[in-house]
Amino acid sequence: MSSEKLTMHLAGAARPWPGLCLAVVLILEAGAAEAQATPWQRDLELAREELGSDPQSSYQRLISWELEAAGDVAYDYWLGVAAVRADQLDQAITALERVIMIRGNHAGARLELAGVYLLQNRLGEAAQQLDIVEQMNPPPAARDAIARYRSALNTRLTSADATTRSAFSMLAVDAGYDSNYLNYPDSFDLFADTPLQGLAILDREATSYSQVRALHFRELRGLSESQRTEWVTSAQARFNIEDQADRFDASTIQSSLTLVTPVSESSEFRLTASLSQLWLDGSQYRRSTSIAAGWQYNLNDRSDIRMRLRLQDNRYQLANNDNVGYLFDTVFNRTINDTWQLRVNGSVESESLDSGAARQGGNSLRQRADIQAHRRVAGSPHQWVFGISHQRLRFSEQDFAAFNQGTAKRRHDSSLTAHAEWRLEPSAQWRFSLRGQHRHQSSNLDFFDIDQSVLQLSAEYLF
Predict the structure, then answer these.
(1) What are the backbone angles phi and psi of residue 257, rounded to the nearest 5°?
(2) Which secondary structure element, helix H or strand E, spans residue 273, and what is its range?
(3) CB burial class (10 A; 0-12, 13-18, 19+) of residue 265?
(4) Angstrom distance (rounded) from CA 308 to CA 230
(5) Which domains does the chain have, with CATH numbers?
(6) For 366-425, what is each residue's pLDDT tens digit?
(7) H/E segment holding residue 134
(8) How far apart are CA 334 and CA 302, in angstroms?
(9) Residues contacting 144, CB < 8 A, separation 6+
(10) CA 156 to CA 1: how far, in whole Å?
(11) pTM above 0.90?
């Protein structure tokens, strides 16, 4: 179905239908009336009055107050409604998402957002919003609107070109500084306290780097009507600027396919298969294939928990490193209030060497715990992310004698990493960020006592 035909088909679903629109709007009239008297209140009333006859004027009247009024539920809702009818779909999404972030049970905002997603052919997201509204026991007028959207949605899903439900791509460039790309201690003499002292001193080295990244996401129909499939392909290449560091230039390409099956209204099961390839200095270094099973449960409209079990096969250019990895991780997400979001993650990962493989240290066990806080103020393009993580790494065999003056030991590492990131999202397409990170690692082997700082500036474009 062409975009022109789709627009015509949605004329009763995502464009103003005066009688029905007014009825649906009245559902949230009480919420809109909560706005207290403000300098922009009179313009809000005028914009609502002229919405049906002159949506462009209504939109322009409201958008002029965005810096002052963004974050007010009534203002953002009516700005979103006017933006839809003035064909400013990106602005509509921004405004309506602000409403939902503050008041998750705002049925009118979710209904409008579903209409925008339909126009942008983001069918999976449209269906999700309709499912949420239907769970709110909407009144008859809202049910009529939902039925119109469902009709348009089903037409798209059953049409010949409905294999793809939604898709987006991302291109990014990064510039950064790495204070310790070799992961060396500040200075280490391999032959300290021996007649060869001073012949092999390893020092920490720094480099600046540039990086390019690309990602494509596509949501497809699943094996049944209730299922969906997510296909993600990504690529990344890092180029170290310093001459001695270019042998550590790394490139990665990865692709994954996930089948998502709803288990209940609040939970879903995910089965993922993925393949990745890593090159180091232009030469093949490692190929990994994995399969993972995950489960997500929404505790309420502010919290969810996710669990995953993954089996991964790692094949290296040097076969003595070949291993099979097992990972179990759990993630808890919590929206604390209108400004702060919290993410807590814990994982356990083991690597078991293949028969005949002879990697230093043998099998390994890695335990990790992370906590991250995300600050986002409604109406502001600025965001902040703060995080800290602790990791423990244990090897099973006594080894690493070359790094311990000839004495073999079982290596035990413990590291603490802290990061802070500033993000700027001036539009729905552009994102910029500045991230700083520092890692301190201590070990029972002095050679693996490491400090590393990384600073990175990024620009991303979504389309």
Answers:
(1) -130, 125
(2) strand 267-280
(3) exposed
(4) 16
(5) 39-161 (1.25.40.10), 167-462 (2.40.160.40)
(6) 999 999 999 987 668 899 999 999 999 999 999 988 888 788 999 999 999 999 999 998
(7) helix 123-134
(8) 6
(9) 20, 23
(10) 8
(11) no
